Amino acid sequence: MMTHNGKQLLRKIRLIIAFFMLALIVSGVTAFPVETELKMLCSMAEIDSATVNDSPAIFGFVHTIKESITEINQKTPQIAYGFDWLAFAHLVIAALFIGPFRDPIRNKWVVQWGMIACISILPLALICGPIREIPLYWRFIDCSFGVFGIIPLVICMKWIKELEGMANESKTLVN
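^ that's the sequence the OP posted. Answer follows.
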């Protein structure tokens, strides 16, 4: 039987996992309408062909991407299917965290896997970024997803180990 502290700890673990799942879902769903989102962002920031040269470099990069995505979608809309798969992957990864949400101790490997995935973002961005001509500042933005993503997972893993210790201690007391 779980103690009051164990129940509180389980609730905190589930809250972090739910937050992480929600973040994955939101980032995944936003990959579907990428052209529309880029058009809205450029419109709100008043970035267009006439103002882009007077804007910070990051705005110029966003404008270039918007123009490229629009052109690609007009000429070969099939390429956008890659964004659909990106979105789908985020949703599937979020679903994977249902296991540790339900039983964090038995499924702690999913949290560990998530931590490895967060760390893996760094070499991907730093190796593939220059190949794809992604500016350094944008690669750092991409890396931030791994850096900020691992923080809740590290906290969660710490709490899972604590919960596991409580469970093992209660089993020892019963025997």
